[in-house]
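Hi support team,

I've been running sequence recovery on a batch of backbones for a student project. Most finish fine, but this one hangs at about 90% for roughly twenty minutes before it completes. I'm not sure whether the input is malformed or the queue is just slow. I've pasted the structure tokens below so you can try to reproduce it. Let me know if you need the job ID as well.

Thanks,
M.K.
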């Protein structure tokens, strides 16, 4: 099977030029002006951009959490991702305390067999006695080259500093990367207990019991631990200016610290948690939404490369039935929100169209750096000869209103309901196969492959 994409404007993290792209089987094999090669399929991309498929390095499909399970599985979630121009994601396997990581990997690998696009896995480490350090190396051999550790959620996922340090010391040797959920879980827990004892049960207290200082303190501690271990660290879902400042200070000193933020922190605020009729529960995720002024600081962080990646932390729970579990206590609302479908649209519109970032930077944030950071580059994350033909024909002029009525995520609300954006994926190819074309789905469950990732590519910037 061969495909020729003609007349498109090719946008990568570094370049912006007009070219035709020839795809044979699953790879890009020729790039150039006015190609006359015979192809089984020709796509006319006149007036459109061709970008490397989006890579979302932070999703939670089919994840048991907070007494329920996230509502998208690997089939529905990856399908929704593809509609939005994302062709690869990295999800999280969760080690059960006292068990081998291998068991978790097998479970999540099975869940992933329904994926419609390629996927990788991080390993959430909940337990790491000295005797089990070899498990971490085993994961690297299996292509699981990053581990997430939690400084929050006591008695569930939280680990102590010694465990974090042990994992980081190991990554200093094996080249993998520690991803930190940085919030001071112990202190937050005390705030939560106090609020509940005072009868403060509404969704807004989820945010009021998780101050920005609790995030900044944990980011600072994670950086210090990584320095002592001689390893890089990647801060996930960074939400506040205070935390950003800690990352910025460290990077100025040349410490290899990296961080991602998510569209919700760039575009929503704590006011959303105060919506009437328990609607604030739709915005309960961790870290929480902050005061509006933090948004400008985060955009600045993206511009200055203090933040290198935009992921979604897609972790959907339906409003009816799932978020409802916390009607009488914000502490029982399952933490998480949907977003895997809208990342490229939102960052294109609010970043590129509103002149906060360039087109190249958009591609870099949503595809290229995620690929570099997590061992997928140059197989993915760019448009080059030999790379996977994970390509998006992007219509920069398509206007749409984001809504739960039209999205493809298996969840009954949108965090961005009513947001108007200009720019959307028109045609999406995954390893050379058209899976979305003008709103029509032609992919299938199980066609996505588990990608064994290389180790962290190094602090290139
Ligand atoms: O609220 C969130 N973010 N849920 C998913 C788990 C996590 O901490 O990433
Ligand atoms: Zn987290
Ligand atoms: Zn997450």
């Amino acid at each position: 099977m061969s495909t020729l994409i003609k007349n498109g404007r090719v946008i990568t993290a570094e370049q912006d030029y007009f070219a035709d792209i020839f795809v044979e089987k699953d790879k890009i094999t020729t790039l150039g002006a006015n190609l006359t090669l015979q192809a089984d399929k020709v796509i006319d991309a006149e007036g459109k951009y061709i970008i490397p498929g989006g890579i979302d390095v932070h999703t939670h499909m089919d994840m048991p959490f907070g007494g329920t399970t996230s509502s998208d599985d690997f089939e529905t979630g990856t399908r929704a991702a593809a509609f939005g121009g994302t062709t690869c994601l990295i999800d999280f396997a969760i080690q059960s305390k006292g068990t081998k990581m291998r068991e978790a990997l097998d479970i999540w690998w099975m869940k992933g067999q329904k994926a419609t696009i390629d996927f990788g896995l991080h390993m959430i480490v909940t337990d790491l006695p000295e005797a089990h350090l070899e498990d971490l190396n085993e994961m690297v051999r299996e292509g699981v080259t990053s581990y997430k550790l939690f400084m929050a959620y006591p008695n569930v996922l939280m680990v102590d500093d010694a465990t974090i340090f042990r994992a980081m010391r190991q990554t200093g040797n094996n080249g993998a990367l520690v991803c930190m959920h940085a919030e001071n879980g112990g202190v937050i827990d005390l705030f939560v207990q106090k609020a509940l004892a005072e009868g403060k049960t509404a969704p807004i207290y989820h945010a009021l019991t998780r101050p920005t200082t609790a995030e900044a303190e944990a980011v600072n501690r994670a950086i210090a631990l990584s320095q002592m271990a001689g390893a890089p660290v990647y801060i996930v879902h960074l939400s506040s200016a205070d935390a950003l400042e800690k990352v910025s200070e460290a990077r100025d000193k040349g410490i290899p610290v990296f961080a991602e933020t998510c569209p919700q922190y760039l575009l929503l605020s704590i006011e959303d948690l105060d919506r009437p009729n328990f609607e604030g529960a739709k915005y309960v995720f961790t870290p929480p939404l902050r005061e509006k002024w933090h948004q400008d600081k985060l955009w600045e962080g993206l511009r200055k490369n203090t933040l290198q990646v935009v992921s979604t932390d897609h972790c959907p729970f339906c409003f009816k039935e799932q978020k409802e579990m916390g009607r009488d206590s914000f502490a029982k609302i399952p933490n998480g929100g949907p977003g895997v479908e809208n990342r490229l649209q939102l960052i294109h519109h609010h970043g590129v169209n509103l002149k906060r970032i360039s087109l190249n930077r958009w591609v870099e944030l949503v595809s290229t750096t995620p690929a570099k950071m997590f061992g997928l580059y140059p197989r993915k994350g760019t448009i080059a000869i030999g790379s996977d033909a994970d390509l998006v024909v992007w219509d920069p002029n398509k206007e749409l209103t984001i809504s739960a009525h039209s999205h493809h995520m298996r969840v009954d609300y949108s965090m961005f309901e009513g947001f108007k954006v200009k720019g959307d994926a028109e045609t999406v190819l995954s390893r050379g196969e058209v899976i979305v074309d003008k709103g029509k789905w032609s992919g299938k469950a199980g066609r996505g492959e588990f990608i064994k990732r290389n180790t962290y590519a190094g602090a290139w910037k």
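--
Follow-up from support: It reproduced on our side and the slowdown came from queue contention, not your input. The CA atoms of residues 413 and 433 lie 30 Å apart. No action needed from you.
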